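Appendix B. Chain record.
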Amino acid sequence: MSAVPVPRFAPRGTHWLVDCYGVDALLLRDAPTIEALLRDAARAAGAHVLSSHVHRFGDGAGVTGVVVLAESHLTIHTWPEHGFAAIDLFLCGETEPERAIAHLESAWPDARIVKTRHARGA
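Structure tokens predicted for this chain:
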């Protein structure tokens, strides 16, 4: 089995996993508000939104959503019954993912937010 050659100029990006605890359950069920929040967070980072979709799973249940970006993606999964949201933010290029995270933090000021950063393709 031959080794796969590593590209001379590997793609690079920053991948953030953002866990949000203590978010109001009503907010975590509100698909239109979640979609607007994600789109605004992406724009705050300087990313270009290509499309988005958020799906609500029914009365009292959470949502799952994705914002497709020219620079990669932003996704969310919510569990209102636990006050929890898991956000995945992967950005490449000349973006500032920290600004997207700051936007999320300002929208949910009472939440405890745990952020993990991973360099991709470095």
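Further analysis of this model is presented in Appendix C.
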